[in-house]
Amino acid sequence: MKKLDDYSGDFMPDLKPSDFSYEALEKLIKIYAQLYKALDGFWYLTLMERSGNDEALTCDIMVWEKLCLYEMNKLSKGFNIRGKDVKSMMKAFQLSPWAWNIKSNFELINDNHVIWKVLHCPTVNALEREGRGRENDICNNVEIRLNKLYASFFNPDIQVNCLKTPPRESDQDYYCRWEFKL
What we know:
Blueprint: H1 22-51, H2 53-78, H3 86-95, E1 103-110, E2 113-120, H4 122-130, H5 134-154, E3 159-164, E4 176-181
Antiparallel strand pairs: 1-2, 2-4, 3-4
């Protein structure tokens, strides 16, 4: 049977992932990651409109603190990631839907030391366009807390050092850089 590259043809009531080509599945993963990002943005902005940015930020932190542990648990179990080192954390982190929305690279110094550089972040782009400075709260408050929580899921002794966050000096500058070290 030919693999589907798109789904513009007949309705298939028993549609399965195996019916799609590799390229179509890759596209589907990217779309799901974009939906994940959009849901985060829509609920945050809706809460901000109703209750103000301080309440939205507080709720954002509470939700992500729960979600990141749930996410790491699901990904670790689903992909049999069992290590307690930084490399294991990065394996699971790369599988996160959020990671599919950004462009980044990982410099693996050793299994217990990684530098993570974010080269493109659509969230920061949107916040910079907004022009209210909210990227400072998100990047310098929420992301620091969540990266520490992601790390502690694997090993509470993993140190998370924020090496750079916005504001960026130019459009060519890294969005952020992080060091994870055990």
